[in-house]
Amino acid sequence: VAPSRARRPARAAAAAAVEAVVQPPHVLPLSRNEALHMLQLVPEGILRCHIRVEFGPIAGRCSGIDGSKSGLHVCFQTGELVVSTIEMEQDDVSFSEHTIMRIVDKYAAEGKATFIIPGGVVFVHRFKTRGLLEALLTALRP
């Protein structure tokens, strides 16, 4: 049996566990602890979504644009949630609640959010699971 096929049942079970925790939008907002717990259950720490990063001090006057359809990687380093982009053509970008300058979540219900960080702007969209975007936004808010 190929290694990728052997991991599928475990990956499917982990995905089902995440889906069981994801709450419908009409339920009360997640607490920070609930959001962190949901993100810890994510299989391999990968949130599937599309990403666009604009490098430069101000969006619109960027020195470069990069994108990826692979998603975000979430991990916990010394008790802090750290989010990194995956498979960018240029360098991957990492950020945490302490490095985010501003979060724009006006279109979170549509699976879109913007993270303004020093040196650029990270746009995420087409989140596969809307509840995970809500968890990510809740966990990264100061």
Write up what this structure looks like.
The protein is α+β, with helices and mostly antiparallel strands and 142 residues long. 27% of the residues lie in helices and 30% in strands. It is built from three helices and nine strands. It has a five-stranded antiparallel beta sheet with strand order 3-2-9-8-7, with no helix packed on it. A hairpin with an 8-residue loop joins β5 and β6. The protein is globular and about 40 Å long. It starts with a helix and ends with a helix. The relative contact order is 0.20. The mean pLDDT is 79.
Write the layout of secondary structure elements.
Layout: H1 3-21, H2 32-40, E1 46-47, E2 50-55, E3 64-68, E4 72-77, E5 80-85, E6 94-96, E7 102-104, E8 113-117, E9 120-125, H3 130-140
Helix pairs in contact: 2-3
The percent of residues in helical segments reads: 25-40%
Element order: H for helix, E for strand: HHEEEEEEEEEH
Detail the poorly predicted runs: none
Secondary-structure class: alpha+beta
Q: In which order are the strands of the major sheet placed?
A: 3-2-9-8-7
Average pLDDT taken over every residue: 79
Shape: globular
Number of helices: 3
